[in-house]
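2024-03-11 09:14:02 INFO worker-7 job=invfold-0412 stage=load source=structure_tokens
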């Protein structure tokens, strides 16, 4: 049973990323507009990345115990990318508050790229 847990954690990561990016964020933006969405998303995104980092860590633990090396790497990459994205949030918010659009877009794009990478590596986990 423990050998199935790494795949479950990868599947949960995929589900959370898809739900956040296709349902939560667009719905909040569409319903509240950029000014109304900002305060809500500033509370949601830190939790989003903490959950992904936690799932990555759990993935590593179960994969190492189950001797599933590639799955451990996937969990490690997920955890590290989520932690980095989490650490970028204060700077990203500051750039938005200071209306430094160039820096904000750069940081936001880095966060998006890391999230897409987490999605793709976790999607690939059943095939490694």
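2024-03-11 09:14:09 INFO worker-7 stage=emit residues=128
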């Amino acid at each position: 049973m423990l050998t199935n847990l790494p795949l479950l954690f990868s599947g949960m990561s995929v589900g959370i990323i898809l739900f956040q990016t296709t349902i939560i964020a667009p719905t909040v933006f569409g319903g509240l507009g950029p000014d109304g969405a900002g305060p809500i998303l500033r509370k949601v995104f830190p939790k989003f990345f903490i959950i992904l980092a936690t799932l990555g860590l759990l993935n590593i633990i179960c994969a190492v115990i189950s001797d599933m090396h590639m799955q451990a790497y996937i969990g490690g990459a997920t955890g590290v990318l989520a932690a980095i994205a989490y650490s970028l949030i204060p700077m990203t918010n500051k750039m938005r508050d200071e209306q430094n659009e160039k820096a904000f877009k750069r940081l936001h794009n880095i966060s998006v790229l890391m999230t897409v990478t987490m999605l793709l590596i976790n999607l690939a986990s059943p095939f490694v």
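2024-03-11 09:14:09 INFO worker-7 stage=report msg="The longest helix spans residues 5-65."
2024-03-11 09:14:10 INFO worker-7 job finished
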